[in-house]
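Intended use. Records like the one below are meant for learning the mapping from a protein sequence to its folded structure. Do not use them to infer anything beyond what is encoded.
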Amino acid sequence: MKIFNLPDLGEGLPDAEIVRWLVKEGDTVSLDQPMVEMETAKAVVEVPSPFDGTVTKLLGQAGDVIEVGAVLVEFDGDGSSSAKTESAPVAKPEQAQAKPASNNAPSAASGPVFNLPDLGEGLPDAEIVRWLVNEGDELSVDQPMVEMETAKAVVEVPSPFAAKVAKLHGQAGDVIEVGAPLVSFGDGDSSGSVQAEADDSADADSDDAGTVVGAVQVGNKVVAESADAVVKALAKKLKVDLSLVTGSGAGGKITQADVKQAKKDGKLIGSKAAAPAPVAAPSNTGSTADNENPLDFKASPAVRAHARRLGVALSSCKTSGKKGSITKADVEAAVGAASATATAPVAKPAGGGLPTVQVSVEPQSVRGVRRAMAMGMAKSHATVVPTTLVEDADITAWPKQDFLARYVRALVYASKIEPALNCWFDGEKYERLVHPNVHVGIAIDSPDGLYVPVVHDADKKDAGQIRARVQELRQKIETKSLKQDDQQGATVTLSNFGSIAGRYGTPVVSPPQVAILGTGRFRDELKLTDKGIAKHKMLPLSLTFDHRAATGGEAARFLAAIIEDLQKPV
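Structure written out for the chain above:
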């Protein structure tokens, strides 16, 4: 029998919900055949089979929440087509095979080594928030060992088996690469874990234990994280305190129905008669309440880091953000509430004037969407040869309408007049690909950073369809449900920075694209006409293009076509 555990589906979250099964028990499946649709916080993802075999058991049904690493499917087959790490079909190979630095590599005599698994952000590393165990501790299977911060959340990393901790690699604040050693184990009993079969002869000499969550490679063996935790995962999702629930199943076992009923009865986490954790006064240590589980609260990594720096427990913060999330303003308000009663008034200096305020500045780690933006900007700066043309379009004749849809229409029109800027350029091969269709990337600002989702086939959509698509993309960003496909394939980009402020700019081209149009804040301007002086509404435009791929004449014609379309009344 082969066991397939739910892999990390790329969200950095501890679980996913079954949408629907694409196979049934008794079906014979082939390698990479989709088996189930799982919903994460951002997308619905198809999970493929890791090998050829016959499905003997499906663990869960539509609506069930499955924890990453929990058993999802049982097979009856020889697994001849299986990858060595059965639960890793969605992991990036370069991350799963990352070699630890030689100066961090423990000796073979130190016992099995657990390497940092892929926590699902598409990033090569994660930061240690705090250790939950010490060297010398005896651990049980699935016991949380460390809290690691990814781009979307603080994730607890569990122990793959029962053993003694020999060495902890790193301390709070250290950034650990995926595949690098995280914990070395000494003598212990690993029989508490469920071990998947592996071909010991294939990689017998391999010292690489790069892993993904769900299947942990320790030495030469693949160890699957144990426990089918559907009930526990459902309780976590519904914020139900299992200690308050009485099980109705066999032997007093808690069922999913018990958890759902407990939700209705208000048996939630934090509902016990206990005083809330006090807000710690701001200090230079940046510590937070040690007994607080960060995953119990909805807050972005930036907000969590801000709370840690100010010494604020998330449990004491109000939730003014969307869908009950905690914002930076909520954290600062909690500090103010504590400081109002805990600090003395600041004395004014002699002779009047403002009091002296001591300000401490600490570096902030750039992660998630912001890190992806930084990497994209660096790539552009290193490869693109940018040139920017600026001009104004007279939009006085416009009726009241959706400006963004008009900007997209103008880009489509210009791409048909001068296709040289609606293309991709390969700077290594010196090849360009001119696209017959227009896929417009829309730069959208958010508290987490800059997103550039795509209106695909904009040349085949009318104004209403464009508005609907842009609104759909904005909603996906707000709910963190933007799919990877939503952000790929742009042939030209629009940056409407004028909706906030700014007249002209030098927007950055995103390779392999060749051009980006920036629209500034329009202004009223007096112009001399045949009928005298009249007030006209002018729209500033900034077109940046990669001069390796397009000539100045092509870019000028592209910009002129944009202006021609924008100056039409409708």
